[in-house]
Design a protein that fits this description.
Elements lengths: L1 H15 L17 H4 L4 H15 L14 H15 L10 H16 L6 H4 L9 H18 L3
Helix pairs in contact: 3-7, 5-7
The structure holds heme C.
Heme C binds next to α3, α4 and α5.
């Protein structure tokens, strides 16, 4: 009985390796990316990129274990969900109201320590934000809010 269960589990694990979600990678230039339309200084970019872009852009840098199912499905659901809420590569397509809302949400999630997701920073230790990095993002969002007129 035990043996049958093990065989069944292993079979399922093998079979699901062949079902893979579509990858979040794009080779075309991101025309609507936030940095194409707004000022994103290098020091800001270098915080956002490793901390947020895997889930909030059109290009994810996949870890090796993404090749193991069901990990990829789990990551894909985070990415889809993340992109639905905020996509830095499509920021310019948002209507003004939505841009403003997203900017305040960025501040809020950073201040509350909700982003990056803790399941992510557990492994991506480089994505953990220091107080200094949080300040960089918060004051950048401030200046962006002023320039697009939400104050
Ligand atoms: C591992 C994936 C992942 C990473 C990395 C990540 N996010 Fe998210 N983010 C999500 C998901 C999933 C959601 C959808 C809402 C939720 O689950 O809280 C989300 C939602 C958001 C929202 C919308 C919140 C709302 O109320 O709708 C903002 C703003 C946000 N993230 C900002 C960021 C910023 C800024 C970073 C980097 C500092 C970041 N996220 C890093 C996955 C991620």
């Amino acid at each position: 009985m035990k043996k049958k269960i093990i065989i069944a589990v292993v079979t399922v694990l093998i079979v699901i390796q062949f079902f893979r979600p579509q990858k979040n990678v794009s080779s075309v230039p991101q025309k609507n990316a936030i940095e194409q339309h707004y000022n994103v200084p290098k020091n800001v970019r270098s915080v956002l990129q490793p901390a947020c872009y895997d889930c909030h852009s059109n290009n994810t840098e996949y870890p090796w274990y993404n090749n193991v199912q069901p990990v990829e499905w789990w990551l894909a659901s985070h990415i889809n969900d993340g992109k639905r809420h905020l996509n830095f590569d499509e920021f310019n397509l948002y209507p003004l109201d939505k841009k403003k809302k997203k900017l305040s949400q960025i501040k809020e999630t950073i201040e509350k320590g909700e982003m990056p997701l803790s399941s992510y920073t557990l492994i991506h230790t480089d994505a953990r934000l220091s107080e200094e990095q949080k300040k960089i993002i918060l004051s950048w969002v401030d200046s962006l809010q002023t320039s697009i007129g939400s104050n």
